[in-house]
Amino acid sequence: MNPKKRNGIQRRDVFSAAGFLAAAGAPAMAAATPDVYTRLDVRPFINTTATLTINGGSRTLPEVIAAMEQAAQFHVNLDELMERASSRLSEVLKVPWGLVTAGTAAALTHATAACIVGADPEKMQQLPDLRGLKNQVIMPRESRNVYDHATRTLGVEIVEVDSAAELESALGPRTAMIQILGEHFGKAKFGLPEVAPIAKKAGVPILVDAAADYLIVPNPYLALGADLVAYSGGKILRGPQGAGLLLGRKDLVRAAWANSAPHHAFGRAMKVSKEEIVGMVVAVEAFLKTRDLRAEFKEWESWFAHISAAISAIPGVKAQVRGPQRGGPFPTLNVSWDPARVGLTAGEVGKQLSDGEPRIMSHASGPGNSFLIRPVAMKPDDYKVVAERLAAVLRAAPKGRVVEKAVAPAVAIGGRWDVAIQYAAGTATHKLFLTEKGSKVTGTHFGWALEGDLAGRIAGNRLTFESKLPAGGQSLTYTFSGQVDGETMSGDLDLGEYGRARWTARRQG
Predict the structure, then answer these.
(1) pTM to 2 decimals?
(2) In order of start, what are the domains of the chain with their CATH numbers?
(3) How far apart are CA 79 and CA 152, in angstroms?
(4) Cα separation of 507 and 132, whole Å?
(5) pLDDT value at position 7?
(6) How do beta strands 500-508 and 415-422 pair?
(7) 104 has a pLDDT exceeding 60
């Protein structure tokens, strides 16, 4: 009997959706119900925000779910499984080597570790202590974003550059790698084509964060000179939500695996399961063999046409299809309205969609009058519900924004204020320097280590203002609301994705 064949199944067939389903007569999937969420008093929603992690990512392919369920029934050695999975990824994607990771963030962390210490166990055990090791990562300024934390978690210093001259000056013995945001579906002022020749000459590896991209064979980033490319598995690939891919140079990808779980190294906490490894390979194969992305794009655009027809009939409302762009390689629908004819803010529209039945999660937020609909996570008939509900909300809106009569400030709040913040865990002392002009409030917010501008309003003794503190690749937003009582102020603090807090302040001087 062929040792590579068991029960009439070839080993390579097991790494295909059909192979998994046929391998042990996988049962048909039961009809989906929301009971697993509703019994916890959590309301599911129609997702028009595409692949945002906080909203559950994309819809996992049925064959991926079936493969993961089948994989859960057996035990295997993870080193052996990853070796075979990596070989299969290399084969179908035409790349030197591949690795399944616990999402793109884990791929970035493991890649950074690989570029710092390789697969040297002694140096691996020293991380994140970078004494005697390379400790800098260079990034084009326009590539910085909130996901930099996945790289910075190793303690490296991020060095920003904005030109070839700055890059050449920044390169040195402390440089571990260069990291760039994927740009295949957009334009970059200083991107991979400009960086690659300089990096190659210096012998410094390049890592591309292409989390939102879909796979292209041959890989466009590796072809342009990148050494490593990271992708999300739970976005447009529709693989396991918690999985990702790291593709590229075989030595560095192997080193990334050595630095990750189940091995006892810095990446031990970023575990990828046997089910996710199997599911990710099946998702890649399905993407290459059975999915027709052009057909999916056309289907999404037909959904947009239906939604557009429903809402464009409302006076003052417009809808426009936009093409793929950097960070979103799929068509989107921009919905906008004239606030003089539709008296709702985007935030009010979003709240009505979210509060209604069925619940619809959208990008509609804030004081503006437009938002994007992104289709990747929508089910085939969701667009009809979205069109009906959105049209109803916009049609029932007041005919023009009601301008509230301004309330004059009851107190003067100019000057310096010492602020005590009580977080869910821990406290901090900040400073506010406020200037007022009528009901408008401006100034500067000094945090524990960062500072930024603030702006807001005061009406009577009630005030609200917002500040943004630049923090590397992102800005931390603080929205203060509360009341003034003589020389003190207090109220609630909205920290965005980081939750809420309480604040009190006392004027000084």
Answers:
(1) 0.89
(2) 5-42+50-289 (3.40.640.10), 293-395 (3.90.1150.110), 415-508 (2.40.128.120)
(3) 27
(4) 48
(5) 37
(6) antiparallel
(7) yes
